[in-house]
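Hi R.,

Here are the chain sequences for the assembly we discussed:
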Amino acid sequence: MSDVLTRSEPLPAEAFSGNQVVIRAAPAMARFSLRARTAAEVSAVLGFEAPAKIGATAHGVACLGPDEWMYRGAPDAPPPVAAGQMVAITEISHRNTAIVVEGPRGAEVLSAGCPLDLSKFDIGRATRTVFETVEIIVEREANDRFHVEVWRSFAPWLWTAITQVAAE
Amino acid sequence: MILIHCPYCDEDRPEIEFAYGGEAHIARPLDPSAMSDAEWERYLFIRNNPRGRHHERWRHSHGCGRFFNAVRDTVTDKFETTYKAGEPRK
Amino acid sequence: MTRFSAISLIAKALNGHKDWPEQWPDAAPKPAYDAIIVGGGGHGLGAAYYLAKKYGITKVAVLEKGWIGGGNTGRNTTIIRSNYLYDESAHLYDHAVKLWDGLSQELNYNTMYSKRGVMMLAHNVHDIQSFKRHIHANRLNGVDNEWLTPEEAKAYCPPLNISPDARYPVLGAALQRRGGTARHDTVAWGYARAAAALGVDVIQNCAVTGINRGPDGAVTGVETTRGSIACKRIGVSAAGNTSVIMQMAGLDFPLESYPLQALVSEPVKPIFPCVVMSNTVHAYMSQSDKGELVIGAGTDQYVSYSQRGALHIVEHTLAAICEIFPIFRRMRMLRTWGGIVDVTPDRSPILGKTPVQGLYVNCGWGTGGFKATPGAGDLLAYTMAKDEPHPINAPFNLDRFRNGRLIDEAAAAAVAH
Ligand SMILES: Cc1cc2nc3c(=O)[nH]c(=O)nc-3n(C[C@H](O)[C@H](O)[C@H](O)COP(=O)(O)OP(=O)(O)OC[C@H]3O[C@@H](n4cnc5c(N)ncnc54)[C@H](O)[C@@H]3O)c2cc1C
Ligand SMILES: [Zn+2]
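And here is the predicted structure of the full complex:
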């Protein structure tokens, strides 16, 4: 008898909605971690300009550190090819999952567990930080929309924590 | 919780994003087999532990991921400065 | 020294406790002593007492920069146990626990040592293996420590939740019945009173600012905020401030000082009969005679002398307490405070001679030296009186960081209180 492995989703399909905030699982997407010495090398690999400033985003690429970028694209996006460039590329599509927090109370809900001053966190900025003890990457996609990347195994906990805060 | 200025992110960030890395500027031995027991003791175990200015390593582990150095007053916990790894002792 | 007895207590009580005399004099420094102890915590006061009592060295001063017991002695969570893994540690801590036994009688001062038992919870297979290893090692050293099933653990401590679907299931526990708690200040006060009665000067508000040495390098005295004092033997027992004092003698030490916090809840009726520790969840708790839950938190991650810790450290501890004792979720916390603990690379103390003639040290007890108070005092006194360590503290020398004979309790247990 052959066993069929099915991948279970760590987040519920149904969104949480209430108290001026909607929380839902982000749609599936491809994710790549790129490590390089300069933004120029990353740009050469991607074929478009990658942001050079830590915390900046452009064209789905976030600069997370002086030597680290994350690129998110459509689920079927092919991995970038590093031909000739000193760039390490790792696919992390399934290591991470993401939660979208949207609505006028979005920042307030995130602030319950995230120590960043979100009132000073501009649209288009992304950074690695924490929610309580769980590491996350937050990107402010719009004034009242945050995209929260989290490792798969932490996702159920994060979902419970964020929706609980939102419900209160 | 204290705010720490990450010299890479160029921003004040909350302490819980950082991991403390102990006393800074302790050079790794270049020729370990030539070292005496006393030199090993100094390298591995002896620490300044001053009451006042302390040079120490931090890593912005839940941020940009980089190690950097800092000077902090161990009585007030106030940071005097932070600087990138590899820069000379301040 | 006015001796306490049932009769004297009743007599004074009938009189409204109005005319108790001063328990020991507030001494001023004299120009010279035979021996000086730096640090008026339990360890230092104990050393002074045993120097006078056992070795007849009575021209002794204890110099305390603040008030006696104002350091870690008065800030700790008072857990007493001796179930450490290594032979050297078991002997060291058990020597102290044996002294705790008769201490109230010896000092004629109630230290409120209560052998209510210290229970360490096992939450996973690794805990079980590690605790059983401790139990076997302890028994070989004649130190009591026993394994309890979850049911036995619950019988010993009824608030324990042993349901298999608890967030951190209790798979068993190690219990040291002779372990327990004592009242921290009374230990400092009891030793101060008894030492003073034997002729020791207990001098408060007197910070040591320098160590004087003669042409041969040996110590000749100390500089203090109240003038110079001559002496040929100095015992440093200054916990978190040891590095700073050793620098005065030109010695670099293998120590780092960290803030360690504790907190107490509002007082409630007796509910918690023993001490419970969970190394895995990083929490431990007992209930004081006043009814407060006494909870120990962790250290801050960085070296500091600020004597206060960060709030997120306390938060983390309370989250852990709520996980293992959901019953206490609605308790309110009354106070938090911090002390500065001196931590060695192997988490074992340093008790012995130093490279400077006449300078002795007792330090590195880190987060767990209250339990050792009588033992450390006794052994420091021995070492100073004989100019050589007692066999019990001989392994805890400074040389071990050079010759590699570490006593690595850090690797043996995650929590060290
Ligand atoms: C929050 C907390 C919880 C703890 N819990 C436990 C526990 O449950 N069980 C346990 O066994 N241990 C525990 N400990 C550790 C324990 O408190 C210490 O190891 C022990 O009390 C040390 O005793 P001591 O007499 O050496 O130090 P202290 O009591 O700190 O005495 C040292 C004294 O030296 C004085 N001093 C410093 N510099 C100078 C100077 N230059 N001149 C003059 N005087 C000076 C200080 O003012 C201080 O009074 C805990 C510690 C803390 C902080
Ligand atoms: Zn950074």
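The domain at 16-28+95-167 of chain A is CATH 3.30.1360.120 (Gyrase A; domain 2). The mean pLDDT of chain A is 95.

Let me know if anything looks off.

Best,
T.
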